[in-house]
Design a protein that fits this description.
The protein is of the alpha+beta class and 173 residues long. It folds into 2 domains: 131 residues, no CATH class; 31 residues, no CATH class. Helices cover 46% and strands 12% of the residues. It has a 3-stranded antiparallel sheet.
């Protein structure tokens, strides 16, 4: 005896359509995550370049680094990543410090950390978010204050250069 199979094709269509749309949305969201990642990485790179080159010609190193961070943050914000879920506060800086080894000095620059959803609907992966990091360590040019300190140390053997009646010029710090 043959049973009626009315509605079988409708159920198959609904199941296949749901699976197909989920796969398409997963691929779309992955593409969007890659695009946002590339844009965030370029914004981080531009912020790191700004941080690398800004110098206020001040005699205090802290003032130059502070101004460099402000300008680099402005450069990052200019890309308006808030529209893609990356906040303006996600940019951070790794500062140079005295006594730093030459290999650590290459790791001076900017980095951004943010979170992105893996699945748009939240059905395949739940509410899991992926932690994204964009690093751009270009190294930091020596500030004028640091250059003065180094030249003074090489000439006087210490940090006390106020007693000298000379102008120290070094074109290569």
């Amino acid at each position: 005896m043959i049973k009626k199979q009315d509605g079988q094709s409708t159920i198959e269509f609904i199941l296949t359509f749901t699976f197909g749309m989920s796969a398409i949305l997963l691929i779309f969201n992955s593409s969007l995550n890659y695009t946002v990642g590339y844009l965030a990485h370029y914004a981080t790179f531009m912020a790191s370049r700004t941080y690398l080159t800004v110098d206020t010609q001040s005699s205090t190193e802290g003032q130059s680094l502070g101004e460099a961070k402000i300008r680099a943050r402005e450069s990052f914000i200019r890309f308006n990543l808030k529209k893609f879920g990356v906040s303006d506060d996600s940019i951070h800086f790794r500062d140079p410090y005295h006594g730093m080894s030459s290999s650590d000095y290459l790791l001076v620059g900017a980095y951004a950390t943010y979170e992105r959803e893996i699945d748009i609907m939240g059905k395949l992966t739940g509410d899991t978010k992926s932690n994204m990091v964009s690093e751009s360590y270009l190294g930091k040019e020596v500030t004028r204050a640091n250059c003065i300190h180094r030249t003074c140390f090489s000439m006087a053997g210490g940090d006390n250069c106020e007693s000298f009646d000379v102008t120290l010029i070094d074109n290569g710090c």
